[in-house]
C-alpha cells in the first residue's frame, strides 16, 4: 500500500460540454488520517449529489407536490416540521426560500411563493408554530391553543386594536422567548370558543370581556362591541353581562353588577336600544323570521275573510277569483313592511299591519258592494301571533254592514 492515494472522481454521465472541474479538484488523502478521509469522502458525496440534482432535476420535483398539498388546507402555509415528517429536508426548504419559491413568515413556518398575502397570515403562522407537527384543520375540533384578546377581535373583524403581541390561550403552562406571542393559561368554556376562517378564537362575548380586563379603555372596547352588533352576527348580551361581572367594581359599579358595566360599555360605543333594534331587523335571518310571522298571520286573516264570504258567494266563481286577485298583493306588501321597521323591532310592525288589514278589508267590501249588497263581512281581530299574542281570530265584536249606496 502506498503512503498516499488519490480518490478518483466517479463518472455520473456528465455532459462532455461541461467542465469536469465542476466536481472540484481531486483530493489527495493520507490513509493514515482516517478522519480526514471520511470528511473528504462526505464532501465528495455531497458534491456528487448536487451535480445529480443539477443535471437530473426530476429527482427533487417531488418536493413541490408535497408542499403544495400541505399548504392547500392551511391558508397556503405549512411548517418545517410538517414538511420534514413527509421527507422534505430543511435544506430543501432553505434552497426554495432563497430562490423565492417559499416565503418564511416565522421560525419554521413558510408560505408558498405566489400565494396572495392575507392580513392574518402572521397570526396564522404564530398559531401554527405552537403545534408545528399537527395540521391546522386537525386542531380545530379540540384546539389546545385558542386565539384571544385583540388578536381574536381582529379575526372577528371588530374594532381597531393592535393585535400584536398575539394572545394565545392554553390550558397548560407555556413560555416563549418570541416577542410576538403572549401565552395565557386558562380553561375556556366550550361556548366561549368559535372557529372563524379556520382559526379557533374566543367568541365575541368572551373577547369583549377579555379586552375590558386587559385594555381598560372602554372606548376602544366599545368600538369592538359596536362592530360586532352590525351585520349578521348576533351578540348574546345577557351572556356578555355575566362575563363582565368580575370587572364591574373596577369601573365604579357595584361588585358583581355585570349588566351595569355592559350598559356603560354600550353607551361608550354609542349603542342604544333603538340602534340595537335597527341592527337586529337588518339581519337577513331575523328579517325573514319577522316576515314569516306577519305573512302567516295575514294569510290566516284573509283566509277567514274569504271563508266568511263563501256562503254568500255560492256560485259566484268569478267574484271569488276577483277577491283572491285583490288579496294576493297584500302578502307582497307585508314583506316590504318588515323592511321598513326602524325604531323598534315589532311594535310598529303590529300597528301598521293592523291598519293595513283594516284598510284592505274595507276596500274589499267597498269594491264588492255594487255586486252583492247587504253582505256582512266577519269581524277580524287583527293580532299577530308572536308567542305571547293570541292567534288571529274571527269574532262578532265588530261587523261592517255593506249597503248599496243610494
Automatic annotation (TrEMBL):
**What InterPro entries does this protein's entry cite?**
AbiEi_N
- Segments forming domain AbiEi antitoxin N-terminal: 67-112
> What single Pfam family name could you report for this chain, choosing any that match?
AbiEi_4
This one is known as: AbiEi antitoxin N-terminal domain-containing protein
Amino acid at each position: 500500500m502506498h503512503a498516499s492515494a488519490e480518490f478518483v472522481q466517479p463518472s455520473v454521465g456528465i455532459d462532455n460540454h461541461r467542465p469536469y472541474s465542476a466536481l472540484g479538484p481531486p483530493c489527495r488523502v493520507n490513509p493514515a488520517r482516517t478522519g480526514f478521509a471520511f470528511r473528504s469522502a462526505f464532501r465528495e458525496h455531497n458534491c456528487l449529489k448536487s451535480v445529480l440534482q443539477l443535471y437530473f432535476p426530476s429527482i427533487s420535483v417531488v418536493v413541490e407536490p408535497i408542499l403544495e398539498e400541505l399548504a392547500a388546507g392551511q391558508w397556503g402555509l405549512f411548517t418545517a416540521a410538517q414538511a420534514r415528517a413527509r421527507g422534505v429536508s430543511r435544506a430543501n426548504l432553505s434552497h426554495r426560500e432563497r430562490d423565492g419559491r417559499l416565503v418564511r413568515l416565522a421560525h419554521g413556518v413558510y408560505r408558498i411563493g405566489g400565494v396572495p398575502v392575507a392580513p392574518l397570515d402572521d397570526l396564522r403562522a404564530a398559531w401554527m408554530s405552537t403545534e408545528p407537527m399537527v395540521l391546522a384543520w386537525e386542531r380545530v375540533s379540540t384546539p389546545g391553543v385558542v386565539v384571544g384578546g385583540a388578536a381574536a377581535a381582529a379575526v372577528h373583524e371588530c374594532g381597531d386594536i393592535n393585535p400584536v403581541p398575539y394572545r394565545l390561550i392554553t390550558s397548560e403552562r407555556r413560555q416563549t422567548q418570541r416577542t410576538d406571542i403572549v401565552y395565557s393559561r386558562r380553561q375556556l368554556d366550550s361556548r366561549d370558543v368559535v372557529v372563524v376562517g379556520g382559526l379557533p378564537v374566543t367568541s365575541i362575548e368572551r373577547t369583549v370581556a377579555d379586552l375590558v380586563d386587559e385594555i381598560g379603555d372602554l372606548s376602544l372596547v366599545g368600538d369592538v362591541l359596536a362592530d360586532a352588533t352590525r351585520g349578521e352576527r348576533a351578540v348574546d348580551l345577557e351572556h356578555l353581562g355575566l362575563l363582565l361581572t368580575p370587572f364591574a367594581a373596577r369601573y365604579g359599579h357595584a361588585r358583581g353588577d355585570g349588566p351595569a358595566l355592559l350598559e356603560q360599555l354600550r353607551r361608550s360605543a354609542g349603542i342604544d336600544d333603538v340602534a340595537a333594534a335597527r341592527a337586529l331587523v337588518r339581519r337577513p335571518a331575523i328579517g325573514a323570521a319577522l316576515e314569516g310571522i306577519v305573512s302567516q298571520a295575514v294569510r290566516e286573516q284573509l283566509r277567514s275573510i274569504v271563508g266568511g264570504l263563501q256562503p254568500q258567494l255560492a256560485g259566484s266563481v268569478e267574484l271569488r277569483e276577483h277577491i283572491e286577485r285583490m288579496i294576493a298583493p297584500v302578502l307582497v306588501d307585508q314583506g316590504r313592511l318588515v323592511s321598513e321597521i326602524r325604531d323598534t323591532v315589532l311594535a310598529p310592525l303590529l300597528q301598521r299591519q293592523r291598519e293595513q288589514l283594516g284598510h284592505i278589508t274595507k276596500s274589499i267590501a267597498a269594491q264588492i258592494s255594487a255586486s252583492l249588497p247587504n253582505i256582512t263581512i266577519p269581524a277580524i281581530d287583527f293580532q299577530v301571533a308572536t308567542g305571547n299574542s293570541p292567534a288571529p281570530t274571527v269574532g262578532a265584536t265588530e261587523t261592517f254592514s255593506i249597503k248599496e249606496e243610494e
